[in-house]
Design a protein that fits this description.
Layout: H1 2-16, H2 25-32, H3 34-54, H4 57-77, H5 82-92, H6 97-103
Helix pairs in contact: 1-4, 3-4
Length: about 100
């Protein structure tokens, strides 16, 4: 189910990045460019960190959802989607963190 939600969101983001920026938040982010999108990702990451420090699960979930959403907007900016990330996670699955890190060099 969760993969379906990510795919549906990715499809919606693709459609909306070409929409009218006056009526679509996603289109407005794309119109403003990568720096604006990255700023939002950074803001949402900070808010997720603060929520985690606060320890309230509902706030952690809410802020993480915002972070994921804006991260997916960033991916869509580069014509990437959730499958690109899930495939990379699958590639890493079963590797120790040290092995994976050593393989990057």
């Amino acid at each position: 189910m969760s993969h379906d939600i990510l795919e549906q969101l990715a499809q919606t983001l693709e459609e909306r990045k070409k929409a009218d920026p006056e009526t679509s938040y996603v289109a407005k982010l794309h119109q403003k460019g990568q720096d604006t999108i990255l700023k939002k990702v950074g803001e949402e990451a900070t808010e997720a960190i603060i929520a985690s420090k606060g320890g309230k699960k509902e706030e952690i979930i809410y802020e993480t959802a915002d972070l994921w959403f804006h991260s997916m907007v960033m991916l869509s900016y580069h014509d990437l989607g959730p499958d690109d990330i899930l495939n990379e996670l699958a590639r890493r699955f079963g590797l120790s963190g040290l092995e994976e890190k050593a393989g990057r060099k």
